[in-house]
Structure formats: C-alpha cells, structure tokens
Amino acid sequence: MSQTIAIIDYGSGNLRSAAKAFMHVMEQENIPGTVIITGEADLVASADRIVLPGQGAFGDCISGLRKVDGMVDVLHEKVLQRGTPFFGICVGMQLLATRGLEFGEHAGLDWISGDVRKMEPSDPALKIPHMGWNTMKEGGGRVHPVLQGVTKNKNGQWLDFYFVHSFVFECKDSEHVAGWCDYGGDFTAMVAKDNIIGTQFHPEKSQQAGLDLISGFLRWKP
Predict the structure, then answer these.
(1) Distance from C-alpha of 196 to C-alpha of 25, rounded to nearest angstrom
(2) Cβ neighbours, 10 Å, residue 173
C-alpha cells in the first residue's frame, strides 16, 4: 500500500538530506509511496507519516512552527487524536518537550513531559556542542519496534549515530526514553511514546544505522 511521508518545512531543519534518506530507503526496499517537503497544513493533514526535522535554537524553532498557518492544530489532530506515526529529528524531537530552556524559557508542544536543558558533561575536557558519532544503548529494558532492524555491535549496543547538539531532552518519565548515550554522563538519544518517536541524532547522517532506523519507522504500525 502506497503511503505519503510529509517532511515539515517551517524554516528550520536539513530538509533535503532528510528527504533523500527517506526516498533512498523506500527505493532500496521497494516501499511504495511519496516523500513531500511541505509547509502546508492541508498536505500534512492528508499524510500517512509525519517527520519534523529541526536545527538551531529551541525558541526560534517552536516560534517558526507556530507561525505556519494551521500547522500546530493539524499536528495535534493527526498525531495525538488520529495516531499518525510521527518522527521528530534533533530539535524536532526537542520540541516535543514541555519547555525549552535555551536563551530563556519557551513552551514546547508538551507531547512528552520534560525539559530541554544545556548539556553539562562531568568531564570539562569534553567539548560542547557534542558533535560526532556515539553509540546508543537501549532505554527502559526494551527494544522499540523501529530499532528492531538496526544492527548491534558485539557488546549488544546499537551502531553509532551522528550527533550535533548542545542541549538535551530530560524526560520526566524514564519510560519515554527509548535510547541513551554517554557523553560525560547519560543523555537521552531517543524518545518514544505511543505513535511518536524522536531522535537527538540525525538518522539521515548516520549511514547504514540511520537508514535502518528510517526503514523501521516506515514499516512501523503503532
């Protein structure tokens, strides 16, 4: 069955590379469907899956999203009421939080309770932003369905994903942490709740591990 994947354009995010990664997986795995980049709420309303990328400051991103006519209302209806599969990437994941504390306090979508705070590694030699590859470990003692096809290393941990960030999502409830990484202390690498997932890392920049995760999302039936 063909499906439409809507990647939301609200003035933030690495849209083209994300779209290319989704199209590549669909072509390689013969998953029928179309990937669209759109800032039109009506097109998002008719999509089968929704992707919210994001890069930059939390406040700028949430402000940009709210300025898109009707978009937040459509997202609430599609994701929270209809159960449409949703994937937030980097700051797109952070916007799911209750609030972001970057350059002041900003209200998020509050789909997953928690705050987005500046990283504070225990080792002062570790640089911020956290930039590069890091190995993700499963959270909550369970493997989320979208991760089932991602290859693990000999230590039983997932292969490295690519990160670029200075702030982290501190979930109020640990059951919503689907994966975590260590960078001078543990931080949330992936969140999950019902039909919603989000990753702090960029799957579109994470080579085969990222493509495997995208494949898992495209096949996921929450």
Answers:
(1) 20
(2) 11
State residue 170's pLDDT score.
Answer: 97
What's the first-to-final CA gap in the chain, in angstroms?
16
205 is written with which tokens? 């920049």
Name 37's bridge partners.
7
Query: Residues 52-63: pLDDT tens digits?
Result: 999 999 999 999
- Following DSSP, what letter does each residue of 138-176 receive, concatenated? ESTTS--GGGTTSPB-TTS-BPEEEEEESEEEEESSGGG
Provide the 10 A C-beta neighbour count for residue 30: 6
Residue 212: how many other CB atoms lie within 10 Å: 20
Instruction: Name the percent of the chain lying above pLDDT 70.
Output: 100
Helix or strand or coil: residue 55?
Answer: coil
Read off the amino acid at residue 170.
E
Active-site positions read 90, 202, 204
Which CATH architecture group holds 3-219? 3-Layer(aba) Sandwich (3.40)
Beta strand 177-182 with 186-193: parallel, antiparallel or unpaired?
antiparallel
Q: What are phi and psi of 151, to 5 degrees?
A: -65, 140
Query: Rounded distance, CA 222 to CA 219, Å?
Result: 10
What is the C-alpha to C-alpha distance for residues 166 and 3, in angstroms, rounded to an integer?
A: 34
Q: Which of 70-84, 107-121, 154-168, 198-212 has the lowest mean pLDDT?
A: 154-168
Instruction: Report whether pLDDT(159) > 90.
Output: no
Cβ–Cβ contacts within 10 Å for residue 205, how many? 18
Output the six-digit token pair for 41: 């709420």
